[in-house]
Amino acid sequence: MNVQLTHMETRLYCCDYCKKEFLPTRRKVQKFCSNSCRSKSHHQKTKVSKALSTLKGVTKTEKTSIDKISLAGVGNSAIGNLAVNLAEKLLTAEENKPATKKDIQSIANKLKRYHLIKNMRPNFNGQRPYFDVELGVLLYL
Question: pLDDT digit string (tens) for 12-35?
Answer without folding.
Answer: 888 989 999 888 887 777 888 898
